[in-house]
Amino acid sequence: MSSDKVAVVTGGNKGIGYGIVKGLCEKFKGVVYLTARDSKRGKAAIAELNKLGFKPEFHQLDITDKKSISAFAEHIKSKYGGIDVLVNNAAIAYKMSAKEPFSEQAEVTVAVNYFAQVDVCEALFPLLRPHARVVNLSSSCGLLCNIPSPELRKRLKDPNLTISQLNSLMKDFVQAAAEGKNQELGWGTSAYNVSKVGLSALTFAQQRQFDTDPRPGLIVNCVHPGYVDTDMTSHKGPRTIEQGADAPVYLALLPDSPDVIKGQFVWYDRKVADWAK
Fold this sequence. Notes:
By secondary structure, the chain is an alpha/beta fold. Helix content is 43%, strand content 14%. Helix 3 packs parallel to helix 4, helix 4 packs parallel to helix 7 and helix 6 packs antiparallel against helix 7.
């Protein structure tokens, strides 16, 4: 078993994920894993990085497939024994022109952007080494103000909110959307917003768990990378993928110090934002 340090990036074959892999290859002293749902696209991304002189590893990982998650976790456990950096980047967003009914958009978006993240973390968190860093890619859409209902906002920002309770809230939204009551019940009209608010709230709950973990120095933060020129933004974002990757890479490589950022919502300029404002 290798003793190398290990960094893992989900959804790393394009966009911000690719930029994060590239940034970690430049700055992280260890093995960097580019993972992707599609092996062909993942290996093509590896080939492009090889041309730049970088040598990341590739492994297939579909975050919506528990068998795929389990296979990846077993691979890392057997080959390296642990993980030092985990960047949860993989996500989806329906276009404004999407024809699918809102109920379907809600179910799929929350399944990928929230529940699949929970599944990945449940499988990989046991492999985190002391002082590991976890970065969850959120969005400005993941600020609490994007939930219209004061009561829902109160529940989501509860400092004692558990992951189980948060899971129930996300299921409540999907059910409300299925019944056409998402606006009536205060969730609003954007499944993407709800999924990213959920991911942000998940981050804070995860840090509370880390604070009582016997492994010292575990840190998780979520980050808004800015409006980046990617497929997800239909290439309307003004920021490059390298600029979008800057804050996530910064958080992935946080040093050990008493005043280090932890359990926070971080803006693309590396500054902590008031998530619940």
